Amino acid sequence: MDDACQIGTVSTTVSAIGADVESVAYATEQACGLQMLAGGERAEYRNGEMTIVKADAKVRLAHDTTLAVTSKVKITKRHGETLAAPIVYDVMGEPAVGASGMVAYLRKVTT
Q1: What's the confidence (pLDDT) of residue 51?
Q2: Is the Cβ–Cβ distance between 78 and 61 less than 8 Å?
Q3: How many domains does the chain have?
């Protein structure tokens, strides 16, 4: 796999004024395979508001990777080249585990 990523664990705390504050702790960089999706390749999921959203990409990871629906995936290298601005994705749905590893659909985080 020519790409590299970091898996982020999301935690939420409450600020002094009672607002939820989300923070992400990223693990060490690991090999992954990112595939951008277009058209009919894009899987569809329902978000919390029951609106249908489509996946932007899918990622292949090693079997021993810990990945949850609440995780973030930060792509740090693409085709062996370090990205000047890493791309962050939300995991959409439970990852599928197969003989060669796991695959998860991703939705790009807009900032």
Answers
A1: 75
A2: no
A3: 1
pLDDT at 39 over 80: no
d(CA 8, CA 71): 5
pLDDT band at 71 (very low <50, low <70, confident <90, very high): very high
Three-class secondary structure of residue 42 per DSSP: coil
In whole angstroms, give the CA distance from residue 67 to residue 55. 17
Q: Which tokens is 6 given?
A: 């970091």
Q: Quick check: 29 pLDDT over 70?
A: yes
CATH number at residue 58: 2.40.10.270
Cβ atoms of 30 and 92 within 8 Å: the answer is no
